[in-house]
Structure formats: C-alpha cells, structure tokens
C-alpha cells in the first residue's frame, strides 16, 4: 500500500507540469497585454514597454514558462500582477472558503442521494423510484449557474430568506451549497440505485434471505456495503468536480473563494494567480482520488489484496 501511495504521489509531478504548461500556453494566446493591465489605462507607451521588458513578457513563451517552473520548484508561486501580493498568500487566505463550501455541498449530496438511491433500488418501478429518477435527470440537466440564479430569485429576492451573495454568517452558505449539491446529488443517486440493483440480485443476498435474515438487515449489512463501492468513486469524482464547479457558483454568489479569484484573475490576465488557482484545483482533485482509492482497500478486501 505504501509503495502504491508513493507511486501515485510521484505521478502528480508530470500531471502538474502538463496542467501548468497547458494553462500557461492558453493564457498567452488570450487577447490583452498584461503590462498594460498592470499599469492601468493612464500608463504611457514608454512605461508599458519598460515594464514588459522588466517582467520578461517579451521572452519566448517556453522561457517564460521555464522561469515560472524554476520559481515554483523553490516554493515561489509568483507575485500577482493585479494586487502585487504573493500568490500563495492570496490562495491560502481563500482556499478555506472554497473547501468549506465544497465539503458542505458534498455532505448534502451524500445525505440526500444515498437514501434515495437505496430506496429506489429496493422499490424498483414504484412511484418513489420514478419520481426520484425524474428529479435526478432534471438535476443533471440544469446548469449550475442557472440553478444559482433561480435560487437567488426565489429565496433572496422574492422571500428574503437568505442573502443573495457574499459571506456573512451561516445563512450565506445555504444557497451556494445547495446549488453545488443539486447536480452531484443527481449523479450519486443514479449510481447508488444502479449499483444497489446489481447487488441485491446476487446469490449471497438470496442466501441470506433464505436463512431468514430480515429484509432490513440484508439491505443494511450485506447489500449496502458492496453497493457503496461504485458510489464512493462517484463521490470522490464529484468532490473534485465541485471544487471546479465552485468557479461559477462563487461568481454567481460573490463568494470569496478560489473560484471567484480565478475568474477575476483571468479577466485581468493575472497569469501567476490563474496558474496558482489551477494548481490548487488539480492537486486537490488528485489527492481526493488517492484517498478514495485507499478507502477501497478498507471496504473491499479483494482490492487490498491487489495492493499488497
């Protein structure tokens, strides 16, 4: 298991290199001049040329990227073109907000989706099952930003139950958390239902029933544990997706997290800040997937045997 973990951690190095290069190259193709953005509209042409030369913006893109990687390997994520502050300091200050929002959203998704998926599977083709699957389909189909706007109109403008944006107390978490949770709830529900249907048709489930074990015990102790293995995969993936999806949600709700910071940085062509945000997202997604793989070993002994 330790060798597997170390191997996965080493694999993060080429992943980070590929992600950062791709983002760096794409940003270099976007319109606008970073030097002009830094100095503002009132800057003279001479000042812009001088700053462009000083910051190395005239260097080839490969050289610029190499210099960035050298600084990154030494622990320096660069200085923000927009604020003039250290990128790592800005990200550290905002990451807890994004992480808190994502954790609450995935918690809501799991609490809602697992019971619905289990009940839908055990009552296949019932009214509850049909309603659950229709709601899941609707949840997957709706764009995240549209859900956020609809929730703001309904619960902030019409009824004034919750604030429409910002971060001011626990009420500010409700709407953005539910916005993120809706789409992931739909996906986890469908996966749990499909997995549960497959498990409850296995021979060992029929054997347990034949021995006189009650239906509730069979579902809870025998079927659910095995059915959760695919669901855990989806939950892990959804957690990474929610971190990325927080970009739109945080923008809609003016939530001071990394997602909103990245959108603002893209608008000002703040390359170091954009790269810093992308690195955090990619690293978080990879670590979550590693944790999920390790959890497999404790849920299914067969997987643990493969690691050893």
UniProtKB/TrEMBL annotation:
It is found in: Cell membrane. PROSITE patterns: ABC_TM1. InterPro entries: BPD_transp_1_N (IPR045621), MetI-like (IPR000515), MetI-like_sf (IPR035906). It is a multi-pass membrane protein. Keywords: Cell membrane, Membrane, Transmembrane, Transmembrane helix, Transport. Residues 95-296 form the ABC transmembrane type-1 domain. The chain crosses the membrane at residues 9-27, 101-122, 134-157, 169-188, 228-253, 273-299. One of its GO terms (biological process) is transmembrane transport. It comes from the Bacteria. SUPFAM superfamilies: MetI-like. This is Peptide/nickel transport system permease protein. It comes from Marinisporobacter balticus.
């Amino acid at each position: 298991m330790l060798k597997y973990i170390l191997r996965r951690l080493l694999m993060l190095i080429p992943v980070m290199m590929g992600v950062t290069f791709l983002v760096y190259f794409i940003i270099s193709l976007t319109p606008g001049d970073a030097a002009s953005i830094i100095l503002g509209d009132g800057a003279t042409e001479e000042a812009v040329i001088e700053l462009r030369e000083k910051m190395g913006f005239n260097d080839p893109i490969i050289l610029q990227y190499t210099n960035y990687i050298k600084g990154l390997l030494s622990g320096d994520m660069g200085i923000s073109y927009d604020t003039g502050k250290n990128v790592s300091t800005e990200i550290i200050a905002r990451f807890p907000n994004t992480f808190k929002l994502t954790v609450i959203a995935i918690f809501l998704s799991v609490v809602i989706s697992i019971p619905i998926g289990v009940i839908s599977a055990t009552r296949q083709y019932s009214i509850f099952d049909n309603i659950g699957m229709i709601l899941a389909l609707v949840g997957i189909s709706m764009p995240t930003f549209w859900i956020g706007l609809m929730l703001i109109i309904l619960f902030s403008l019409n009824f004034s139950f919750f604030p429409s944006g910002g971060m001011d107390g626990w009420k500010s978490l409700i709407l953005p958390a539910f916005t993120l949770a809706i789409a992931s709830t739909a996906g986890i529900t469908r996966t749990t239902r499909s997995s549960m249907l497959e498990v409850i048709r296995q021979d060992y489930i029929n054997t347990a029933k034949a021995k006189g074990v009650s239906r509730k015990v069979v579902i809870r102790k025998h079927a659910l544990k095995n059915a959760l293995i695919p669901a855990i995969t989806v939950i892990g993936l959804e957690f990474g997706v929610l971190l990325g999806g927080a970009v739109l949600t945080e923008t809609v709700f003016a939530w001071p997290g990394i997602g909103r910071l990245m959108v603002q940085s893209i608008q000002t062509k703040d390359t170091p800040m954009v790269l810093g945000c992308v690195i955090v997202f990619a690293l978080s997604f990879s670590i979550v997937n590693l944790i999920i793989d390790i959890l497999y070993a404790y849920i299914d002994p067969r997987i643990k045997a493969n690691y050893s």
